[in-house]
Structure formats: structure tokens, C-alpha cells
Amino acid sequence: MDGWLAALAAELHRHGLGSDLTGHVVAEAAAHLRDSGESPLAAFGPPDTYAAAVAASVGGPTPAPPGRVVGPVRLAVRGITKRYRRRTVLADVDLTVRAGEVAAVIGANGSGKSTLLRICAGLARPDRGTVRIDGRLGYCPQDGGVSDFLTADEHFVLIGAGRGLDRSAARRAGLGQATALDWAPKPGVLARHLSGGTRQKLNLSLARLGTPDVLLLDEPYQGFDRGSYLDFWHQVWRWRDGGTAIVVVTHLLNQLDRVDTVLDLTRAEAAA
Ligand SMILES: Nc1ncnc2c1ncn2[C@@H]1O[C@H](COP(=O)(O)OP(=O)(O)OP(=O)(O)O)[C@@H](O)[C@H]1O
Fold first, then answer.
1. Which atom of ligand 1 is nearest to the CA of 124?
2. pTM (2 decimals)?
3. In the 8-state DSSP scheme, what is residue 63?
4. Structural domain boundaries of the chain?
5. Ligand 1 centre distance from Cα of residue 182 (Å)
6. In whole numbers, what is the pLDDT of the chain averaged over residues?
7. Whose CA is nearest to atom 24 of ligand 1?
8. Is there a contact between 143 and 223 (Cβ–Cβ < 8 Å)?
9. Is the Cβ–Cβ distance between 27 and 251 less than 8 Å?
10. Residues with C-beta less than 6 Å from any ligand 1 atom
11. Which pLDDT score is estimated for 66?
């Protein structure tokens, strides 16, 4: 792991990133590897590829188009507090996201980012506070979301049915989402035989089925190669410009000047 991190730092410098940003990216990657127990190659790919993706995202594409109009509030999180035993994971958290806006949720490992998204998705119950969602919801969890023994096609049909799509509409929609992420699912291949990054593309495609009004994305790009990572952010801006309210858990601070709201959970965690 140390060798991979050193190579990442060298590559980031080679791409002209400053010491602060390089240090931050390396520290975030190290923390992720420690917590997940994954190998660096499985989590991030080769260091030069990952560094190139990070570098390309600095000052990269798509500022909001001029005259962009945001719509009504789609997600309203008010005063969310969550404790696990005696530990306060979230303390009085507020977040508002309108149609056509992107919010980034950042914070140290364990600061409650995934917990907040699970609460927003209705999968965990807060001790206090409310979540109001106006419209259809799509949720891309950090882990899971994909069943090992189903093909991509079967996932599209199954999840599509829950979103009111018939078989052919679900297949069409799923393949459309996959194509937008530069992935062409092969018929008959079980999800357990997909690479980590491709499973995440399936996960993300499923979250987008039925064109949700509110999209919750929990570090959905893990394992993406450079091209896929850039495609992912392009897609985010496209969905935003199409009126979707988007929440992205991210650890790459260089994206933050391009989002509408940044919710940093580090302080809440530290105060607990
Ligand atoms: N079901 C649970 N029971 C007990 N503790 C939990 C549960 N789910 C999460 N936690 C704890 O709550 C804290 C916040 O976890 P969470 O996964 O939300 O953090 P995170 O900010 O998403 O972390 P990471 O950056 O590592 O993904 C952690 O200390 C975690 O161990």
C-alpha cells in the first residue's frame, strides 16, 4: 500500500497538483484503504490512472450553464440526529437541495455520510429530525445494491418493476444508463463476474432507472477507471441540468467548487 501511495503522490506532483491537494488526496486514499481493507489496485486502479483522473477533474468541465434555473426544493433534511449506542454520529444536520442542484457531502471516515444518505433513503431511522422528499427517489449505496446471481438485464427488469417500468422499458432504460457510463452489458453475465468498477456502473444505472427527481449517490465511482470517472461527473452535470436534485458523497475536494452546496459532517462528528 505504501508503495502505491508514494507512486500516487509522485504522479499527482507530475500533473502539477500542489502539495496541499496532493497531501489531501493521498491521505483520503490511505484512509479509505485502511478502512476498507481493499488493495489499492482494486480500489483505485493503477496510481498513474487515478492521478490522471484527479488531475483532469481539477478545473475540469461544465460549470453551470449561464442562466441556469433551479427549481423547487426536492430534498429537505431538518435537524437530523442519529446515535448508535452512546455515540452521536449525526448532530442536528440540515440540508436543502433543489431541482437542478448538486450537493456534496464530505467528512472524515466514520463521520456519518453513509448514515445520512441511508436516512434520506428511508433505510435508517433518525433519533430526531425529518426528511422530506418531493418526487421519485434513486439511491446508489456505497456497497451492495447489486445481487451476485443476477445478470445486468435481470437487475434492470427487477428494479424497473419497482419503479413502474415494464420489462422492455426497464431494459431500454437500463441499457441507456449503462451506455451513458460507457458500459455495454454482455448478455448472460452474472453480476458476481463483473469487475468492481463495472458493478458500480450497474449500481449507478439502477439508481437512475425511472429517472428519479432526487438522486442519492454514495461514492458511486469507486473502482472507476479514469475515463469512467470523468464520464461520471459529466453525467452528474447532465442530470443536474435536466432538473434532478443530486446528493453525492465524495472525498475529492477538487470537485467542490462545482457543486451548489457542501455539507461537511466532520465537525458534527468531532463534537460528538
Ligand atoms: N448499523 C450500525 N450500528 C452501529 N454503528 C454504526 C452502524 N452504521 C454505522 N455505524 C457507525 O456510525 C459511524 C458512521 O458511519 P458511516 O458509514 O455513516 O460513516 P461514513 O462517513 O460514511 O464513513 P466512510 O467515509 O468510511 O464511508 C461509524 O462509526 C460506524 O461504525
1. 1
2. 0.76
3. P
4. 2-57, 73-271
5. 32
6. 86
7. 109
8. no
9. no
10. 35, 84, 89, 107, 109-115
11. 58
